[in-house]
Design goal:
Number of strands: 13
Distance between the termini: 93 Å
Shape: globular
Mean pLDDT: 88
Low-confidence stretches: 1-30
Structural class: alpha/beta
Oligomer: single chain
CATH architecture of the largest domain: 3-Layer(aba) Sandwich
Number of helices: 12
CATH superfamily of the largest domain: Periplasmic binding protein-like II
Helix content: 25-40%
CATH topology of the largest domain: D-Maltodextrin-Binding Protein, domain 2
Strand order of the largest sheet: 2-1-3-12-4-13
Largest sheet: 6 strands, mixed
Strand content: 15-25%
CATH class of the largest domain: Alpha Beta
């Protein structure tokens, strides 16, 4: 009988939780704030999403906001459509940020630092090794592949490079000047003989060279720009200060968090560092040398 009573009690406990119920922690409410962040098209859209999505997910969790990404079709889009797309921020290039600052009043927070400790990049002028092109004089009548008018490496620097060699009108000097829309596109145009000369970021050149040995085997770098800041995250000025602070702190401290360090490794960075307007001095020096007024500059590729 005793065994029967014990069995019944155990069965009742199993079925009804005989004894005290443990209270379950309430489910965490989803964040109320959603931010739309624009990405400039350094590489094709799939590579951009693959690189930035884990970072967006991490920031969404740590800053308690929901971050959505929007890859823009060309560099000027991030400025042209900032308000129409209701973007809250973007990862701006080194020329895109001063333009957006002048036209939109955005505020830069941070930029990535590479595994080697650098947080800058430089533009490169490239040609095929078998083309015989080694100087600007050899480029006359050839085809030139640029990235976009809103880039340092893919437009400002090539203009400076040509101007310093007394070439003031690139459209007259080259048989064809076209915009590829991405740094990867300019590199591949030269590699695939769609252009004899191209301009791009050294970081994209290096990343592609690691994937495709032909790039270093068949292409030569003829010149490089001053070092300028890597793509930095800037947010609209009117965004709540508390939200901006949370995002900034999450970025700056993520290398100290094992989860954040894992995301950084996949992103290709060691950490994020604080960034200010003063870091864009070399870009602004280029704009002054070219006589560019940021407030009225036409950044469309047309």
């Amino acid at each position: 009988m005793k065994r029967l009573l014990v069995s019944v009690c155990l069965l009742a406990a199993f079925l009804t939780g005989c004894g005290k119920h443990e209270s379950q922690a309430p489910a965490k409410a989803p964040p109320e704030t959603t931010l739309l962040i624009g990405l400039i098209p350094e590489q094709n859209i799939f590579k951009q999403i693959e690189r930035y999505e884990p970072l967006a997910d991490y920031l969404s969790s740590k800053a308690e906001v929901r971050i959505k990404l929007k890859v823009l079709t060309y560099y000027g889009n991030v400025i042209d459509n900032f308000e129409s797309l209701k973007l809250d921020g973007a990862f701006f290039g080194s020329f895109g940020y001063p333009l957006a600052k002048a036209k939109l009043g955005v505020e830069v927070l941070a930029r990535p630092e590479d595994p080697d400790g650098t947080s800058t990049y430089h533009g490169v002028i490239i040609a095929r090794k078998d083309s015989g092109i080694r100087t600007v004089r050899h480029m006359k009548g050839k085809r030139l592949a640029l990235v976009a008018r809103a880039t340092t490496a893919g437009y400002l620097f090539p203009l400076i490079y040509m101007n310093r060699a007394d070439v003031r009108d690139i459209d007259a000097y080259f048989s064809d000047v076209h915009f590829t829309g991405t740094h990867e596109g300019s590199i591949r145009d030269v590699l695939e003989k769609k252009a004899e000369v191209g301009a791009a970021k050294n970081t994209v050149f290096r990343r592609l060279a690691a994937e495709d040995p032909r790039i270093e085997r068949e292409l030569v770098i003829l010149g490089k720009s001053a070092d300028v800041p890597e793509n930095g995250l800037a947010l609209r000025k009117s965004l709540d200060d508390a939200v901006k602070r949370k995002i900034s702190e999450a970025l700056i401290s993520m290398h100290d968090d094992p989860e954040g360090a894992k995301v950084l490794k996949a992103f290709g960075a060691r950490r994020f560092i604080r960034t200010t307007d003063a870091d864009y001095g070399p870009v602004l020096a280029y704009t002054r040398e070219l006589g560019i007024d940021l407030a009225t500059y036409r950044f469309s590729n047309e």
